[in-house]
Specification:
Rossmann fold; 11 helices; 6-blade_b-propeller_TolB-like; alpha+beta; serine protease; WD40; Neuraminidase; 36 strands
């Protein structure tokens, strides 16, 4: 039997971005480490064909975004092997394994889309630096003026035969988000935004048609917020373009598949009123496939002229869907309750077979028993979550110290998969003797639009009582020891942990990771400002106050906190800036509350460096051991 160590967690590797060749013969994927030791993250490209998996390249580089040529003979990908941090486009010819650089764009390549024409690739890339830019850099004349010289990804065309890159004069100064060509060749569906920033850009999306052979462009109008993943499919009335976006009018809302019929220009929400949430949309030749977050599990469906057809249901999650040209074969990322994520492939109706084995080192570990939990909220709404028991224990051996870990988002969810990560995770705590409750309260993904929209302007309200109800049930069932309760979370989960200790003294310890403490300050300084306004309900520029966001901000209740709190935060976090943690730290210090405040240099919203991830894991257990064990 193998002991679960922090090193086993952070030294693992995981597959990402599976890309199934149009002919269905080969799958390429990115293999990435869970942590990085240096300044750069070294990733690898692997290829699985008829035989064993093999690495595509041998260089030390960040390699990403594998995509196939239409004839399945060439694999394109991005790599920064020539200059770290500056990705360029490369291609691999499958016939002889030759790897060739095809761009040397001085601004780097953001994305790429091979077209049906074997000589053309669409590039998304910023403008190359000018002589004036070089002078400014040399003279350190680097004052940043808001609204000026902001980065934009522009649509460019690469002619592989000549190596020439051209930039069509289209879309004015807009930032190009994604491109998708009509199956079989033809015009491009192009999504753009007014800017690339996360606060303003997602609310300014538009959809365009662009004929790259004639240069003709047509503006098809505005799209819902955060529109992405364009896909084509034919209907009886001609071609349709679909995309994923947030359901209007709010920014905190469930996603939907929107369908624009090009012949009539009629736009429809194809997933309205469903009790599940579309998470991915992927184009095939005559249809589009949709991955639905469906409670703790996943449903795969097809959208075509006939409507929405359920194809298969799967335990846990399916991510990174890739479809062969005909739509008869898919590749996805999925795992199990006690198996790490791997690449699987098979027909959309199933079954899927595993074709990679990236975490064999976990096979000898006895994980805590994981089981779905169904219960009802105080108002009778059906809820779900997961319960993970201490390794080797049964519920009958309770009560156990219980740590409730709230997911982030809040538009995220717990699914029935292996719960083992660098951040506070169930299996890491279960290995130390804890029972762990993973709730899916209102505001999350997997139960439709209305379920997700409930939290808008009401953060910490119904979602909090949903969590409490689940804890009460576990106490009543004899699983949880009411005198040894802890609460933890990262991002929005960190907000909920900070909120919890200001509302009750039932918890003996809390962990607030990259958590929100003041919604008004976050809306003013975080990179997703308007999204935070939707959650908090207001912002500080609307008169003298008081404001609705004050009533749902944990800092407003800091004088009530008596629970010991561990605060963890990345120093360079732009999503939830460090000031949120400083505010809570200063308040707890002022009121004499026992706490630790840990800042991780060079880290953003997620902790990436190996030593820092190890510290998070060890510190998490040490903190809860200190307060929840006798």
């Amino acid at each position: 039997m193998t002991a679960l160590t922090a090193e086993l967690v952070v030294d693992g590797r995981a597959p990402h971005s599976p890309a199934l060749a149009p002919d269905g013969q080969s799958v390429c994927y990115v293999l990435a480490p869970a942590s990085r030791a240096g300044e750069c993250l070294d990733t690898e490209l692997w290829l699985v064909g008829a035989g064993e998996a093999g690495r595509v390249t041998a260089d030390s580089a960040t390699e990403s975004v594998p995509r196939w040529s239409a004839d399945s003979g060439t694999l394109f990908f991005l790599s920064d092997r020539a200059e770290r941090g500056l990705p360029q486009l490369y291609r691999v010819t499958l016939a002889d394994g030759t790897v060739t650089a095809v761009t040397c764009w001085r601004a780097g390549i953001d994305d790429h889309f091979p077209l049906a024409d074997p000589d053309l690739v669409v590039l998304l890339a910023g403008d190359e630096p000018t002589d004036e830019d070089a002078r400014r850099a040399r003279d350190r004349d680097d004052a940043v003026v808001a609204g000026e010289r902001e980065p934009r990804s522009r649509l460019r065309l690469l002619d592989l035969a000549t190596g020439r890159v051209t930039t069509p004069d289209v879309f004015a100064d807009r930032h190009v988000v994604e491109v998708r060509q009509r199956p079989g060749g033809g015009p491009l569906a192009v999504l753009t935004q007014a800017g690339a920033d996360s606060d303003y850009g997602p609310r300014t999306g538009r959809l365009h048609l662009f004929d790259h052979t004639t240069g003709a462009v047509e503006d098809l109008g505005p799209v819902a917020a955060d529109a992405h993943s364009p896909a084509w499919w034919p209907g009886e009335d001609g071609w349709h373009i679909g995309y994923l976006a947030l359901t209007p009018p709010g920014l905190q809302a469930g996603t939907a598949v929107f369908d624009l019929a090009l012949g009539s220009r009629v736009l429809a929400n194809r997933t309205a009123d469903l009790s599940m949430c579309p998470a991915e949309l992927c184009q095939a030749d005559a249809a589009a496939l949709v991955v639905f977050a469906d409670g703790l599990d996943t449903t795969l469906a097809r959208i075509d002229a006939a409507g929405l057809t359920i194809l298969s249901r799967h335990r846990g999650r399916l991510d990174g869907l890739s479809v062969a040209g005909s739509g008869g074969e898919i590749a996805v990322l999925t795992g199990g309750r006690y198996q790490a994520t791997d690449v699987h492939r098979g027909p959309p109706a199933g079954p899927l077979r595993r074709i990679t084995d990236t975490r064999p080192e976990l096979r000898g570990i006895t994980f805590g028993t994981q089981e779905p939990l169904k219960y009802r909220a105080a108002d009778g709404l059906a809820l779900d979550g997961l319960l993970v028991l201490p390794a080797g224990k049964t519920a009958a051996e309770g009560p156990f110290p219980l740590v409730t870990i709230v997911h982030g988002g809040p538009y995220d969810r717990y699914s029935d998969r292996l719960q083992l990560f660098w951040f506070p995770s169930a299996q890491w705590l279960a290995a130390a003797g804890y029972a762990v409750f993973l709730p899916n309260p209102r505001g999350g993904q997997g139960h439709g639009h209305r379920f997700a929209a409930t939290v808008a302007g009401r953060a910490g309200q119904e979602e909090w009582t949903d969590i409490l109800t689940g804890i009460d049930q576990l106490v009543a069932d004899g699983v949880a020891d009411p005198d040894r309760l802890g609460v933890a979370g990262w991002s929005h989960g960190g907000f909920m942990a900070a909120w919890a200790v200001g509302q009750t003294r039932r918890f003996r310890a809390a962990l607030v990771g990259a958590g929100v403490t003041d919604w008004g300050m976050l809306a003013a300084t975080g990179e997703n400002g308007q999204f935070e306004v939707a959650l908090g309900g207001s912002i500080g520029w609307s008169g003298a106050g008081p404001y609705p966001h004050d009533a749902v901000s944990p800092i407003s209740y800091a004088d009530r906190i008596r629970t010991p709190v561990l605060i963890l935060h990345g120093a360079d976090d732009t999503n939830v800036p460090l000031g949120q943690a400083v505010y809570l730290h200063r308040a707890l210090r002022h009121f004499g509350v026992e706490h630790e405040f840990v800042t991780y240099p060079r880290e953003g919203h997620s902790i990436r460096e190996r030593t820092h991830q190890l510290d998070v894991l060890h510190r998490t257990r040490t903190w809860f051991d200190r307060w929840l064990h006798p």
